[in-house]
């Protein structure tokens, strides 16, 4: 069984257990549930920002611990101050050492869009994402049928959430395109075997219809890569490890951004 299958199996059990502890009614009555959300597209296209979606990630299955010494408020506020167009916060605990509280804290501390980075397989998680303060949810084509994508994306849109679809190959892109998506992200990392190549973005990017924001995800570690991707029409750049592996990820992003000008 590959890692993605393991994560999904684990996630099913996690969601089943979460549902026993809190009802959808309770989630819907939380203070954050009824708030207006930030527009992902607006922040990506804002010329005063960088297009970078800066990620708070303590650990990953491919790298092990990346940084478990830094706090989510300090890092995400520094990312926002450095010009992030959005923040990405891992909420998976078992494989990424993230927590739902991390997302809630990032929301409270910032006024730019926040992405709930998790493996969404159930409508419960979408409602929970809104109640925790997310503005954007991630739907991963590799683990969802087109029907599931449609159901989850429609629910997200009905709650005012933005939807980012992640694809890794042409087949996933073609079968998963859906009018309820806001952005399509090409993951340069193959989640099944962890190999990375930014070429994946160039190959798939030209097949993403113009109505969607185009995002390149993973393995971005220099500003030249971003400049090239911008030329190819990409609007957003999801960066985690390159910042998180530094003692001060916020300062690392600040330094990185200087190279974009
Ligand atoms: O740390 P990187 O290589 O900059 O990658 C960030 C982000 O793209 C990556 O964490 C990611 C992309 N898709 C995911 C899905 C689930 C968890 C994590 C991810």
Short description:
The chain is 42% helix and 16% strand.
Distance between the termini: 44 Å
Total domains: 1
Low-pLDDT runs of 5+ residues are: none
Please identify, by name, the CATH architecture.
Answer: Alpha-Beta Barrel
Q: Strand share of the residues?
A: 15-25%
Q: Figure out the total of helices.
A: 12
Q: Which percent range fits the helix content?
A: 40-55%
CATH level-four homologous superfamily name: Aldolase class I
Strand/helix succession: HHHEEEHEHEHEHEHEHEHEHH
Largest sheet geometry:
8 strands, parallel, barrel
Spatial shape: globular
Describe this structure as you would to a colleague.
The longest helix has 19 residues, at 3-21. The chain has helices spanning 3-21, 24-28, 40-45, 72-81, 100-109, 123-132, 146-158, 170-176, 199-205, 223-231, 241-244, 249-258; strands spanning 52-56, 59-60, 64-65, 86-90, 114-117, 136-140, 162-167, 183-187, 213-217, 236-239. It contains twelve helices and ten strands. It has 261 residues and is of the alpha/beta class. The strands form two sheets. An eight-stranded parallel beta barrel has the order 1-4-5-6-7-8-9-10, surrounded by six helices. A two-stranded antiparallel ribbon has the order 2-3. Helix 4 crosses helix 5. Indole-3-glycerol phosphate is lined by residues 55, 57, 117, 166, 187, 217-220, 238-242. Indole-3-glycerol phosphate binds next to strand 10 and helix 11. It holds the Pfam family IGPS. GO terms for molecular function: indole-3-glycerol-phosphate synthase activity. This is Indole-3-glycerol phosphate synthase.
């Amino acid at each position: 069984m590959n890692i993605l299958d393991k994560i999904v199996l684990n996630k099913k059990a996690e969601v089943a257990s979460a549902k026993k502890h809190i009802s959808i009614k309770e989630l819907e009555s939380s203070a954050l549930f009824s708030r207006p959300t930030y527009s992902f597209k607006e922040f990506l296209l804002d010329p005063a920002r960088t297009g970078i979606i800066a990620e708070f990630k303590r650990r990953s299955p491919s790298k092990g611990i990346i940084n478990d010494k830094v706090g989510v408020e300090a890092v995400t506020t520094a990312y926002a101050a450095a010009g992030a167009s959005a923040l990405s916060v891992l909420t998976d605990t078992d494989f990424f050492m993230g927590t739902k509280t991390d997302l809630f804290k990032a929301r409270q501390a910032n006024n730019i869009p926040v992405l709930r980075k998790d493996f969404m397989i159930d409508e419960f998680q979408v409602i929970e994402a809104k109640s925790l303060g997310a503005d954007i949810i991630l739907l991963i084509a590799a683990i969802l049928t087109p029907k599931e994508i449609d159901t989850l994306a429609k629910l997200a849109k009905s709650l005012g959430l933005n939807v980012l679809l992640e694809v890794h190959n042409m087949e996933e892109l073609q079968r998963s395109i859906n009018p309820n998506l806001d952005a399509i992200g090409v993951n340069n990392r193959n989640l099944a075997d962890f190999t990375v190549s930014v070429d994946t973005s160039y190959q798939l990017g030209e097949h993403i219809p113009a109505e969607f924001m185009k995002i390149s995800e993973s393995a971005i570690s220099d500003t030249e890569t971003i400049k090239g991707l911008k030329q190819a029409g990409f609007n957003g750049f999801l960066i985690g490890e390159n910042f998180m592996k530094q003692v001060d990820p916020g300062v690392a992003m600040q330094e990185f951004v200087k190279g974009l000008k």
